[in-house]
């Protein structure tokens, strides 16, 4: 299926100019966007495998992260849908800035929380050679804690990686919009006012860091 899509994109540049597609339409940029989107999809598939894994994170820790993770997932999916609409209609979106800001704020909250997890992981106590020999095969309590937290760390890392790859797709679509001269979308005054009045999330992040 991917090979067919690539062939279609390569052959498209040989079509006569029609509609909004001029002779110098940047068809190669679609290939770049497709490659970046697939990279994002691979990471989402890895996240899905992590969610369905038998090694689940601690329920208490997972509940603390639930709201932040939902924000990241929601904003990322909305951004990808908006990019698809932008490409199909060949218009610039007036909502991306708002959702990108929401996603980046949520990612910052997630990173701050991951830093706080360092307080839950303690270095194993020093052991004498005899004790180390006797307990060579036995996991310490701290080792078990690390193993329990590891799925959570993997999950959060994948979310952060997905957000980074989504931003790469945004940049590629923005480049396409400039090259293909996308039209400006009608500005939603309500959304624009929300963007202008939105308080930067950095103050909240600083408060979170102080608690860590």
Automatic annotation (TrEMBL):
It is a multi-pass membrane protein. GO terms for cellular component: membrane. It comes from the Eukaryota. Its main location: membrane. It is found in: Membrane. Keywords: Ion channel, Ion transport, Membrane, Transmembrane, Transmembrane helix, Transport. GO terms for biological process: monoatomic ion transmembrane transport. Belongs to the aromatic acid exporter (TC 2.A.85) family. This is Aluminum-activated malate transporter 10. It comes from Forsythia ovata.
């Amino acid at each position: 299926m991917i090979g067919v899509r690539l062939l279609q994109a390569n052959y498209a540049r040989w079509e006569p100019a029609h509609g909004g597609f001029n002779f110098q339409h940047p068809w190669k940029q679609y290939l770049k966007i497709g490659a970046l989107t697939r990279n994002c999809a691979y990471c989402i598939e890895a996240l899905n495998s992590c969610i369905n894994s038998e090694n689940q994170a601690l329920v208490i820790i997972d509940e603390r992260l639930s709201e932040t993770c939902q924000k990241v997932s929601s904003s990322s999916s909305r951004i990808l849908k908006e990019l698809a609409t932008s490409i199909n209609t060949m218009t610039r979106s007036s909502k991306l800035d708002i959702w990108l800001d929401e996603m980046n704020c949520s990612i910052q909250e997630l990173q701050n929380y991951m830093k706080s997890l360092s307080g839950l992981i303690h270095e194993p106590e020093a052991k004498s050679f005899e004790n180390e020999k006797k307990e060579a095969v036995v996991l310490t309590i701290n080792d078990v804690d690390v193993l329990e937290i590891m799925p959570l760390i993997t999950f959060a890392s994948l979310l952060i990686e997905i957000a980074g790859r989504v931003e790469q797709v945004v940049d590629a679509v923005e480049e396409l919009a400039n090259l293909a001269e996308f039209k400006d979308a009608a500005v939603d005054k309500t959304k624009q006012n929300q963007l202008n009045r939105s308080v930067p999330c950095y103050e909240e992040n600083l408060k979170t860091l102080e608690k860590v």
